[in-house]
Design goal:
Helix content: 10-25%
Oligomer: single chain
Number of helices: 1
Number of strands: 6
Number of domains: 1
Largest sheet: 3 strands, antiparallel
Order of helices and strands: EEHEEEE
Structural class: mainly beta
Strand order of the largest sheet: 2-1-3
Shape: globular
């Protein structure tokens, strides 16, 4: 699936092979003034929500099967965490 996040932090989800292909076929280049960032999260990748102390999600870290770590371009990164197990 593809997770899209806009500058105002609204999000969209694109799922399904045909829908993902259509997304990439119509994707404007960054030079054309794209107003969003996106992550293409493939099967087998680990998606970790990053939250603040109030449990609000600000970003998602995706770790793919090669160990590459990706974040949303417009998402906050500092001061965030994710609990593994009980807090």
């Amino acid at each position: 699936f593809i997770l899209i996040i806009r500058d105002n932090f609204t999000t969209e989800l694109v799922e399904g092979g045909k829908e993902i292909k259509a997304f990439f076929d119509t994707l404007p280049s960054e030079d054309e003034g794209r107003d969003f960032s996106f992550l293409h999260i493939k099967r087998g990748s680990l998606a970790i929500p990053l939250i603040d102390i109030n449990k609000q999600i600000w970003n998602i870290q995706v770790i793919n099967n090669t160990g590459t770590k990706l974040f949303l371009k417009h998402g906050r990164k500092s001061g965030l965490f994710h609990f593994i197990g009980k807090a």
